[in-house]
Amino acid sequence: MKVVGLTGGIGSGKTTILKCFKAFDIPVYIADDEAKALMNRSKVIKRKLIQLFGESAYKHDKLNRPYLASKIFNDKSLLSKMNAIVHPKVASHFKRWLKKQDAPYIIKEAAIIFENNLENQYDYIITVIADKDLRIKRVMQRDNASKEKIQSIINNQLSDDEKVKRSDFVIVNNDLETAKAQAKDIHQQLLRLLNC
Ligand code: ATP
């Protein structure tokens, strides 16, 4: 089973493009969503996060995301400690999930691949890009976030140019119809590469 990574900066359209591959009957795995679900579900993760962040890490038995975000914002070392708790669990969940799939390839959406030098976990990597102004506008609308906040997240991420250099395929998501056509073309190229 080949693993294709789908990555891209904030608001580039990863989740939107993922839907195209789903429509081609390709199984998709969203690492961030699974991480969030495991943080609510796994007793071991919960215990360790409470040890790290205190009882306020959970509110009414649900992950208290704003609290965690504020703690991490003030102390970056907490992010790596949290990742060290959560990432291995997501990795083993992904392994179990992968074994159950029956398709020529699967797509794993992960915002961070190049940043942590995780390229070797993927057979191919697709990067979704879009013009910065469009991304800012889209995320402002989606999250009701300020322009400055999104801009600062973009500035902290690896540049699109760098991601493109290190990718096998690129989807330019300035316009949805063009992006969908590119996704279809990549799907067909992958099937050919995999002799399907
Ligand atoms: P994040 O990194 O924040 O998780 P993402 O890369 O997954 O974001 P999406 O959530 O797919 O990006 O897209 C961001 C927003 O832009 C969404 O509200 C989505 O509906 C919208 N969007 C994505 N692509 C397009 C497009 N081509 N045209 C118009 N709106 C779009």
Provide an overview of this structure.
ATP binds at residues 11-16. The structure is a single chain. The chain has 9 helices and 7 strands, in the order βαβααββααββαααβα. The mean pLDDT is 95. With 196 residues, it is α/β, with parallel strands linked by helices. A hairpin with a 2-residue loop joins β3 (58-59) and β4. The longest helix is centred in the middle third of the chain and has 24 residues, at 76-99. The chain folds into 2 domains: 1-27 and 103-196, Rossmann fold (3-Layer(aba) Sandwich), CATH 3.40.50.300; 32-100, P-loop containing nucleotide triphosphate hydrolases (Rossmann fold). The protein has helices at 14-23, 31-41, 43-53, 65-74, 76-99, 132-143, 147-156, 160-165, 176-193, and strands at 2-8, 28-30, 58-59, 62-63, 105-109, 124-129, 169-172. The protein is globular. α2 (31-41) packs across α3 (43-53) and α3 (43-53) packs antiparallel against α5 (76-99). Bound molecules: adenosine-5'-triphosphate. The site of adenosine-5'-triphosphate has 16 residues, from α1, α6 and α9. Adenosine-5'-triphosphate (ATP) is lined by residues 8, 10-16, 111, 138-139, 142, 173, 175-176, 179.
Describe what is shown at a glance:
The protein is α/β, with parallel strands linked by helices.
The total count of strands amounts to 7
Q: Into how many domains do the coordinates divide?
A: 2
Shape: globular
Low-confidence stretches: none
Mind telling me which CATH architecture of the largest domain this is? 3-Layer(aba) Sandwich
Bound molecules: adenosine-5'-triphosphate
Give the % helix: 55-70%
Number of helices: 9
Strand order of the largest sheet: 2-5-1-6-7
User: Structural class, from secondary structure content?
Assistant: alpha/beta
CATH topology of the largest domain: Rossmann fold
Rg for CA atoms: 18 Å
Distance between the termini: 12 Å
Task: Report the major sheet.
Answer: 5 strands, parallel
Beta-strand percent range:
5-15%
Order of helices and strands: EHEHHEEHHEEHHHEH
Organism: Winogradskyella echinorum
Function: Catalyzes the phosphorylation of the 3'-hydroxyl group of dephosphocoenzyme A to form coenzyme A.
GO molecular function, one term: dephospho-CoA kinase activity
Keywords: ATP-binding, Coenzyme A biosynthesis, Cytoplasm, Kinase, Nucleotide-binding, Transferase
